[in-house]
## 1
Amino acid sequence: MLEEQRQRAITAFQEFLFAPLETRLARHENISPESNAIALFEFIAATVPAYQAFLTEHGINPPSVQTYQDFQKLPFITKENYLRRHPLADLCRNGQLEMCDTIAVSSGSTGKPTFWPRFLADELQIATRFEQIFHDSFYADTRRTLAVICFTLGSWVGGMYTTNCCRYLASKGYPITVISPGNNKEEIFRVVQELGPSFEQVVLLGYPPFIKDVIDSGIARGVQWPQYQIKMVFAGEVFSEEWRSLVGERVGSNNPCYDSASLYGTADAGVLGNETPLSICIRRFLADHPEAARALFGESRLPTLVQYDPLSRFFETHEGTLLFSGDNGIPLLRYHISDTGGLIAYDAMLKFLAQWGFDPVTALPQENSIIHLGLKEQSPPQQATERGIHPLPFVYVFGRSHFTVSYFGANIYPENVTVGLEQPVIREWVTGKFVLQVKEDADQNRFLSVVVELAPGVEGSKEKQEAIASSILSQLLRLNSEFANYVPPEYQMPQVALASTSDPEYFPLGVKHRYTRS
C-alpha cells in the first residue's frame, strides 16, 4: 500500500470539496505566481529523475535558481528534448509511475502515441476549470443538470478526463448527473430525449464540429432541442462568434455569453484555461470590431480567448508562442507546446477596451431579471451579477502557426474562411468543413482554392458555388487586411468546389479534419 497516495488523495479531495470557488480563483491575488513557479521548479528538481538529468545536461545547479529572472533563464522542455528521451517512470515524481492512477494517450501531430499519466489530485486541480463554467455560466449550483459527455471515450484524454471532472462537481454538491455516450450520435439522441425531461438543463460537452453535427442531425430527425435548455462545453478547435451564434440559435439559446464555453486544453496537462462570460463578451465585441482585434492580437484572425489561474498553470511567452508550467502526473516546467498566442493582464485588457469605448464589465449581459428553467420562471440567484467576472489574466491562442496558407505574401487563416460559411442562407447548405489551399492553373497562375463540404441532402449548383465564393471573399476583405492589400483584385475571388458529405478525398469519416493543405 502507498500511504503517501492515500494522503495526497485525501488532502486534494478535501481542498476541492470545501474551498469555495471564489476563494480558489482569488488565491493569485495573495500568492505571487512567479514565486509559486519557482517553488514548482524546486519541487521538480528535487523529485523528478528526468528533470534532474535535464538540468545536469545543461549545467544548471538547482540552488542557483533563486529569483524569477533566474527562472526565466531555464531552458524550455519539449517532447523532443525531454519527454521522448527518458523512460516514462523517470518523468514522474520520485521516478514512480505507480504514483499515478491512470494513463491517457494522445497521438499528437506526428501520429506517434504519447502517454500521459496522472493522479486523482491532478484531475481535481483541473475540475476547478469545469466548476467555473458550470457555476458561473450555467448556474448549475441551482439547476438540476444532466451532463452528456460527447467526447470520444477510451484511452484518449478528452472523454474520460471530462467525465471524471464532472463527477467531482457532483461530489462537491452540485446537482449534476453525468452520462457518457461518447461520440455515438444515436445514443446521444436517446439519452437527451429520455433523460432530458427529468432535468432543468442539459449540457453537451464535445468537439465543436461534432456537437454541431449532433445538433443538426437531431433537428433533421425532429429533436426539439430548446425544450431541454441546452448548454454546451467545447474543446479542441478555434471557432468564430458567428459559429457560436449559429449553434446557439439552433438549440434555442438566447444568451451566448452564458450558454456555452470553450476549454483551452491539452493532453499534456489537462485544461490550461477556460472561457468565461467576461471573455466571451470581450471576444464578441472584438469579432464586431476587426480593427480593435488586430490592434490587440496583431493578426487578422480571432483567437480563442480564455482566462486562466496563474497558480494552476503559469504561462510565459517566447517569440509569439506559449510556454506553461504546472504540476501534473508528469510535472512540466517551461514546457513549449508551439501554440501561437500571447498573454494579457486583466487590468491591461480593460484599459485597452476602454480606449475603444467598451467596458465589458458593464456590458456583460447578466441574467438579472428572469432565469428560464423549462416552463418555470424564477428570480435569479443572489449575487448573479458577480458571476463570470474574476480578475484573472487572459491567454489567447491561435493554434499551430503552420495551419495557414500563404497567398501573394498574405497569410490566409481558416478562421477567415469559416466566417464566410456561417452567414445566413449559406450556413444552411454546408457542414462548416472545408479545405483551403493555393493551387496553380495550366498557365501556372496561382489561385485560392476552397473545397467545401455540403450538408447532408444538399445538392451542389453553380449558384451555390458563386454565393459561397462571394461570401468568403467578403469576409476575407473585412477581416484580413493583408489579403485586402497584398492580393491583386483580379486574384482575390476564391475558386470554390463543392463536395458531398464525407467525401473520401477531402472529408473522410473517422479522421480529424485538417482545414489546410500544402
## 2
Amino acid sequence: MLEYIRVENFAVVEQSEVRFSEGLNVFTGETGAGKSILIDAISLFMNRRIADSSIRNGKEQLVVEALFTRGDEEYILRREMSKKKSLSFLNGRLIPFDQVKALAEELLNIYGQRDHVFLLNTVNHGLYLDEFSHNDDVLDRLAAVHQRLAAASRELSELRRKNKEVKDQLDYIQFQIHEIENLELEPGDDERLEQRVTILSSAEEIIARGNRVVEEFYQKEDALYNSISGCLRDIHYLKGIYPDLVPYADEVERFYNLIPELTASLSTIVNDVEYDEEELDRVESKLLKLNRLKQKYGLDLDGLLQKRDALLAEKDLLENIGFSIEEKNAEVERLLKGYREINGQLRGIRKKKAAELSRLIQKELALLEMDKARFEVKFEEIEPELGNVSERGTDRMEFYFSSNPGQDLARIKDSASGGELSRLMLTLKSLIDEGRFATYIFDEIDTGIGGKTAEFVGEKLRKISQANQVICISHLPQIACFADRHFLITKEFKKNETFSSTRVLQDEERVSEIARLMAGSAVNDDVLNAARNLLVKRKN
C-alpha cells in the first residue's frame, strides 16, 4: 500500500505531500492543473530516465520520496535526479536503481493511457485465467509432478551421457583402482612401511647396540644388574636409618627389576632383526609408490582408500548402466504420463472457465459503452513432451479482442486502443480478488465516457478498492463521488511562475468540486444540491 508521497521540483510542482487512504483515492482538478504529474512522479521509481524539462525551472534537482507498507514491513523509496546524475535510496540506504525498480513493480500496478504491460504480455493472460479459475490445487499437483519429472529427466540424460563414454571411463577407473589396489594397502600402512625401512636399513646398528646393552646391563660378570644387586643390600641398610632414602631405594629396586625385562625385549629384537636387502628394496619401492600416489591424487592414505571404494562403486554403476537407463527411462515415462493426465485436467478447467470469462467480460464491456465488443480466450493446445513441459502446463493462452462489428478477433496488442485497454484492465481487475493491500493506479481511465458508463466505471473502481488500494485520476463526478479520499489539484501563477498544489477536500469543499465537475463554471444552488445528493447516494 502507498501511504505517503512527497514531491519536490517536478515540473509545475514545487513541493507537494500526499497521504493516501486504504480504499479509493480520487484526484480531480481543472484541465491543465497537472493531475497526471503525481502519477508521473510515482512512475519515476520504475523509469530510469526523465526529460531535463521535468526538473522545475531554476532548480538543480527533483526529489520524489514515497512510503509503502506491506504487512508489517515498511519501505521508503527515494530518488534524487538532476541533469547530471540520479541517486536511488531504500530506507535511507543508497542502492542501484534496478533494485528500487524491482521493488516498486512488486508494490504498484499502474494503468494509464500508455501503461498496459500486464495486458500486452501474453504470459499474464494465462496467469489471469488460472487466478480466475482458482486452479491453485491443480497447478500445485502439476508443479510437483513437473519437479520430479525434471529431476528424473536430468538423471536419465546424465546416465545416457555416461553410457556414451562408459568404455573409456571404465578403462580409466579400472586403471585407477588397479593402481591403488596393487599396493595392497591397509590403514596405517604408510607409518608401518616407514618404520620397516628404518629397521632394515639400520639392522647392523640395531644388532650391535642391542647386544652391547644386553651384555653391559645383564650378561657380563660385572654387569650393571650384578653391581646394583650388591648395592641394594647397602641401600636397604641405610634406608632403615634414614627414612628420606626410602623413595630412592624404591626407584633403584624398580630399575633393578626392569633390567631383565629390558634385556629380554632387546634380545628378542636383536634375534628378529636381520638385514635383508631384497626386503628393503621391496619395502622402499612400495613406500615410494605410495608417496607418489598421495602426491598424484593430493590425498593421504585414508583418502586413497576412500577413493578406491568410490571408484569401485562407480565402476559397478557403469557396468550396470544399461539396466539403470532402462529403470530411469521407465520412471520418466511414468511421470510424463502422470503429467499429461494433470495437464489434461487443467486444460479442461481452463477451457470451461475461459468461456465463462469471455461471457462475463463481454457483458461488463457492454456497460462501458462497448456493447459491440467481443472478447475470447484462444488456446494453442500443445501435447506434453520432455522438451516442452513446465510447471504451469504446456498450452498457450492469449486474449483476443474486437471492438467493432465485422472486425475479426485479433490479439489484444494489435486490436485494442489505449482507452479500450484501460477499460479491459478495469473489468479484469474487478472480476477477481487479488488480496488486500495491492495498489492499483488508474490514470484518466474515464476518458471518452460519461453518463451511465461513467457511473459503472465508478462502481467498478469502488469494488476493486474494497479489497485493494486504488488511486485514480478523473474528471467525472460519477467517479469522484465514490472516493474514500478526494484530492483537488490546483494551479496558480505567481511572478511568472506556475505552481501546482494538492489538498484533501472536506465536506462542502467536496460538494463544490463535484458540482464543478457536473456543470463547469455554471454552478448554482441546484447543481450544489445535486452534488450533495450524489454524494449521499454513494455513501448509502
## 3
Amino acid sequence: MISVSNLSLRYGKRVLFDEVNVKFTQGNCYGVIGANGAGKSTFLKILSGEIDPTTGSFSITPGERMSVLKQNHFEFDEFPVLQTVIMGNQKLNEIMQEKDAIYLKPDFSDADGMRAAELEAQFAEMQGWNAESDAATMLADLGIDESYHNRLMSELNGKEKVRVLLAQALFGNPDILLLDEPTNDLDVETISWLENFLADFQNLVIVVSHDRHFLDAVCTHIADIDFNKMQLYTGNYSFWYQSSQLALRQRSDQNKKVEDKRKELQEFIERFSANASKSKQATSRKKLLEKLVVDDIKASTRKYPGIIFRPDRDCGDQILRLENLSKKNSEGVTLFSNISFTLDKGDKVAILSREPLAISGLFEILIGHDTADSGEFVWGQTITKSYLPNDNSSYFADPENLVDWLRQFSAEKDETYIRGFLGKMLFSGEEVFKKSNVLSGGEKVRCMISKMMMTNANFLILDEPTNHLDLESITAFNDALVDWKHNAMFTSHDHEFTQTIANRIIEITPKGTIDKRMSYDEYLENENVKEQRMALYGSVAKK
C-alpha cells in the first residue's frame, strides 16, 4: 500500500500538487489521468523517489518492493540484456553479483564460505535459480528473441530497449509497480500480452497512459489530477468519462428532480457493472462498481475541444482508386508494392503496416507531396482533401502568432472568425498570441486540427492523429470522427480510436495488400487474415 499525506509540489509560483491525500491499496490498478502538464509523470517520479515533494510525504508498507519502468533508454547500455532484466529485482541481483564474486576469489577463506552460505540461503528463498529462465521467458513474451539475450543493451534499437526495460519492471513479481506510458512503441500483440499480464497481476499498479483501450482493460480505479488535487474514482477510464459526463449534464439540468437524477445515475452504475463482467478485470471491477453509491460520481471540470468537421460539399460516387502503387525508400528498401484498392462512399479506412514509414509514404504520395515509383492513383472530381501529417514541423518554422499562423490557411481573414477556430481547440485570450514556433507537440496538433476544420474538406487523411494529444483531445477527436459521415483514411496506434472509427481495414506490405470490410478487433481475430499476413510477411505478422 502507498499512503500519500498532505503532499505538495511547487516550482516557484507554479503549483502542481496542493495538499494531496490519497491511498493506493494492494490488488488494484490505478490509472493516473489529467491534462497535459497536470503532473502525471511527476507524481510517479515522487513516488519512486526521483523527485522530492515541497511539503508532505508518502509511505510504503514496510517490506514491499517497488519496481519502476525506466525512462532513460541508455542507463543500462553497458549491461547484457538478460542481466538488465534481472536488475529489476535489485536485492536478488546484488545477491547474485556478490555470490559470484566470492566464488571467483583465488584466496577463498572460511569467512567467505560462511558468507556464501548465507547468500545461497537468501538466493534459494528468492527462487534465484529460476531467475534467468523467468527473465528469458518474459523477454520472449515481449518479442525479444533469444539471440539477443546475451547482447549488450547498447546493441539494441530504441523499440527493443523499451521492451527490455518493461521486462525489467515486471520481473520478479514486485509488490508495487509504477508504469509511465508502458504501451509506447509496442505493437498490438505485445500490448495485448501486457494487458493480460496486468489483469492477472495481484499486487498494486499505478500507471500513466494515453491509451484508453489499455486503461479500460487493466484499471480498477482512476486517479484524476485536476486543480492541483487528486481524486480517486472506482472503475476504468470509460466509466469515469461516461459517468462524469452524465453528472455534468445533470448538473446543467435545473428542472430535473433530485430523485430522478439519482435514479438515472444508479441505473448507469448498474448497467456499467453488468458490462464489467466482460472485461479482463471482471471480478474485481464488478464488485467495486456494485459497492458504488451515486454520491461518488462527480461532474468533471475538464475542458474538451470542440472538434467539428463540416464539408462544403458531399462526396460523389467516385472517391479514390489505386492501381499497383509501389514505393522504395532512399536506401532501395521496398516500403510497399502492388497496392491496389478502390474506396467507396462512406469508407473510413484504417491503414496498417509493420513499417510505419510505409504508411506515411503512402499518405505523402496521395496528398501530392511525393511521387510513387510505379503505379497510379486517381481521386474523384468532387473530392477535397485535408491532411494531418505525423511530422508537422515544416508548418511551424516561422515565429508567427497563432492568429496570423491560422489566417494564412483561410480565405476569410477576419480575426474574430480565425479566433473562433482557435477557441474550439482551447486557445483563448492571450494564448492566441503565442508564437507558433515555440508550441508544445500537443499544441501544434491542436493548431493543425483547427486548420483542418477550416478547410471544410470532404476527405480526411490522418497520420497518427492522437500523437502528443491529451486524453480530452483524443476523446473529442475520436467522437468527431465517429460522427463523420464522409470518407477518411488514417493510421493510429490508439486501439480505441481505430476500433470505433474504421469500417474497413487495409494493410499494406512489400508484397501487396490485405483488404477487409470489418472492425479492427474483428481483423485482429480473423483466422483468414492471420494466414494472409503470414503469407505476405513470411513470418509471424505484427501490426
